Amino acid sequence: MVVVIQCKDKVGLVAAITGVIAGQLFNIVSIRENVDTADNLFFARLVLESPVTDAMAPVQNVAGAELLQDMLKAVLPVGAIVRVNPEPHKKIALLVTKEYHCLGDILLRQHFGALGASVVCVIGNHDLLGDICQRFSVPFHHVPFEGKDRVAFESAVLRELEAYAFDYIVLAKFMRILSPDFIDRFPVRMINIHHSFLPAFIGANPYRQAFERGVKLIGATAHFVTNDLDEGPIIAQQIIPVNHTFTAADMMKAGKEIETAVLAKALQLVFDDRVFICNNKTIVFE
Amino acid sequence: MVVVIQCKDKVGLVAAITGVIAGQLFNIVSIRENVDTADNLFFARLVLESPVTDAMAPVQNVAGAELLQDMLKAVLPVGAIVRVNPEPHKKIALLVTKEYHCLGDILLRQHFGALGASVVCVIGNHDLLGDICQRFSVPFHHVPFEGKDRVAFESAVLRELEAYAFDYIVLAKFMRILSPDFIDRFPVRMINIHHSFLPAFIGANPYRQAFERGVKLIGATAHFVTNDLDEGPIIAQQIIPVNHTFTAADMMKAGKEIETAVLAKALQLVFDDRVFICNNKTIVFE
Amino acid sequence: MVVVIQCKDKVGLVAAITGVIAGQLFNIVSIRENVDTADNLFFARLVLESPVTDAMAPVQNVAGAELLQDMLKAVLPVGAIVRVNPEPHKKIALLVTKEYHCLGDILLRQHFGALGASVVCVIGNHDLLGDICQRFSVPFHHVPFEGKDRVAFESAVLRELEAYAFDYIVLAKFMRILSPDFIDRFPVRMINIHHSFLPAFIGANPYRQAFERGVKLIGATAHFVTNDLDEGPIIAQQIIPVNHTFTAADMMKAGKEIETAVLAKALQLVFDDRVFICNNKTIVFE
Amino acid sequence: MVVVIQCKDKVGLVAAITGVIAGQLFNIVSIRENVDTADNLFFARLVLESPVTDAMAPVQNVAGAELLQDMLKAVLPVGAIVRVNPEPHKKIALLVTKEYHCLGDILLRQHFGALGASVVCVIGNHDLLGDICQRFSVPFHHVPFEGKDRVAFESAVLRELEAYAFDYIVLAKFMRILSPDFIDRFPVRMINIHHSFLPAFIGANPYRQAFERGVKLIGATAHFVTNDLDEGPIIAQQIIPVNHTFTAADMMKAGKEIETAVLAKALQLVFDDRVFICNNKTIVFE
Questions:
Q1: Catalytic, out of B230, B250, B272, B273
Q2: Catalytic residue status for D230
Q3: Which of D245, D271, D272, D284 would you mutate first to test chain B, the one with the most B CBs within 10 A?
Q4: CATH superfamily of D2-85
Q5: What is the pLDDT of residues D84-133, one digit of tens each?
Q6: Is the torsion defined by CA of B52, B55, B60, B61 positive or negative?
Q7: Which pLDDT score, from 0 to 100, does residue C108 have?
Q8: What kind of fold does domain B90-284 have according to CATH?
Q9: Test mutation, C211, C237, C275, chain B, max B CBs within 10 A
């Protein structure tokens, strides 16, 4: 049983929380807690275990989870977010353009039950990736940008999304910039993978720039999407070494490898309820 | 203020601990907790902060730490180990042979106050490293093995050690095997750095074996010393990539780099009271 | 144009090779060369470019490649292996059991033309992975072990393989040990991915052993298969960090991630003609 | 024997070079070659071995090296840079400010003969690091900036440097920006270590910015110094993972670890004559 809590900090919070848990005879297998002292915010993730020796333990089932949630809310500051046993199998919608690497990896993992989530649909502004979705029996909707302005395009995307229930939107190499209006509809629910270099390159053709600068590492960053473009809270980052024998095309290829790996890692952390957002940063209880 | 706790597990332990802490008006900045369910053991590390708004907070000083320790012991199972504000600056004795890399790195860090510990003395079975100790104003004792059997040699080492108070013995590339008798005197207080390869090579000249096997990675392992040679609880491990252009000598050189880094990392974790031992494994609250 | 050469070493070899190349007006974009002094063996990989300014360059096409190959053989020691423009798109057969992660990754890459090879068929001793092969339109043959001895089983596998032309057999988590007879049929043509830990664990359930030892890293090794089980020439190795919060199951999951990545990397190197074998080691011109 | 060559590219260059070498009966143990096709530049590094079976080999000594150098120049384009057996033990001058970590590591390595270079002097704009230099018997000169303008300060530094012969100046955490005039005096001879983050942070207090952005990796870059501040050719880059529990101070501490490692790595590559500069990039024959 997983419990995640986010609220204003105050003295005695952990005691109050764990008092409730102990009163229900749960054992705490692990607890991760972090206080952001600058903003006085409290974050915690607990893994509980019902005592196996006590067949009478009252809160082992879903009803029990709801009861525990209410009991915890009662001892926490007003406005506390408490989730007991958050949905262990998330639902996600994907937005893609032409590149297959992140999409393919996600489809493969979900197909074999290793993603921790179901892909409810994929929306592409090109139709190139419809075939792979069909091979994995996942709905694909082609919403071309051509002939539309951004408002019309985003409306069309939203219309497709409306047919589905989902927890997160994953931008799996979606190459169009979304409007603040669109982003505001899914706060803390959109995840993007960004090719970011060391040092970071801005503008068109970052791999060409990286090549010309002769970098020895290239990286990728998975982050929540906010209106501050490519500046939302970072979930995961990794790098891959390159050298002078890499052409710009080789660097792009290496970039795809690391993008795939970082997005997979970030999604696993998010779907496992290990990621909290505090201002523009994440707290990751890895 | 750091609190570390190790005891038998039972339901309500975190509630009891944090209840005491809240009663003393401490704020919990971070808490790491782990239960070993196989052995029913409980481990926790808490970082506390006195409420800055309350000038009357009763336990901000050392006396307060002692009081808090007693109050915590009172609510924990018999035999619990509790340390409040464990000595933040440890004392260590080093055993060395001929290789300078780990010793030099440790001396340098302590000289600039970055080790989290003081080196009280260095004992070498060769005298090669006396000069560098002298340059850092650290006592060096040469205890040659030649002309002694192991009992006599270890007695001579112990005689030198007796003059010093220390928390840990660090085997910084000490190339002699210590007897069970010697090791038993310092349970959970001796740390070794071991060149271990992937796959592991046993016996003489591991770098020659690694070279002949054409490995692509070499590694190092820092671990507590037990009588099971090179098999004590692992604290930290890292690797460094190598390739076919590396001679056995180049591999040894790369091995020294990674040994230095892994031992430095392991010592930092131990000196920071982040490492617990549970059976033959460590729990590291990194 | 890529040229790979392997032969006995002697003074003047590079001069002879590059003399032939210059005589044909090729420019050498990059050259990697290695001499194994212990065995007096010479290995080289050259990337050539026809001079763009010279429309008369005589050896820009396939016929040119054959001519260049003959001209190089003429100046090299007897028994030299020379390949000019080795088949840039290899053919591979896969042997699998139940685990999908390496197979799925390979199928995905080949589907999008990013593998550098075609998968001509997949043979499984269980039928679990037939479905994913079908989704990628790749032939799958189920050859159960049950009811057969090893000789009969391997004969059945060979009968299926006979229908296909392939350059390499990839053991993508194939969990049966192959006989020396089988292995001898495909010298330097079988590649395996091996979960290897640091330190290496032998025998059943390596992840349980790794968990009990409390390792901080787990790794994987891709290697050519020889009759010395899990001891063939290493192509690539990587590790992934783990910690005390990992159960044995979590370690297995992390192990799958790194197995997938290492096998993909090794295949890319092999298919790109960057890997040579020298005794029981590889030379990798990365 | 090491041979490094840099010149305009043309067809037949490797043949010409290796022809000369073969004529002198040297065996080529390894050859690394790279052509920058954009600029038509040729770079090569060869490791030669005299045939052990031939006691009459004419060019085994320094005179031989000079002769070989002349013979190579004769077959290369005008303006070619050829060095046979470049000085294997370099001389370096260090510029420092207050931070000890890179300086200490360099002093330690050189003290034990593991740097591949001698530190001829250290110049500090503060006097804090004089003590550690004295402990390693290395001359330290304190050139304060206070009371001087940049011209006067740099003149004072140059006056100290004039007393020494050196191959490279290493800025080992030297925190003052040098003028184009100063930099122009030491083209391709100054190496700097730069804390660079992912994404890169510009301006004051980069670690505070990294902390506020919640990065998961921090990095460091060693590069040659040009007048384009922090934009010279990159020699080496590495990263170290961080997480939400790191304060800005912890990130700075982690940054120092990685700066030390990257600078050590870069110096080893440079001192080993493995680094070439091509426009604003390096070619590193690692």
A1: B230
A2: yes
A3: D245
A4: ACT domain (3.30.70.260)
A5: 988 889 999 999 999 999 999 999 999 999 999 999 999 999 999 999 99
A6: positive
A7: 98
A8: Rossmann fold (3.40.50)
A9: C237
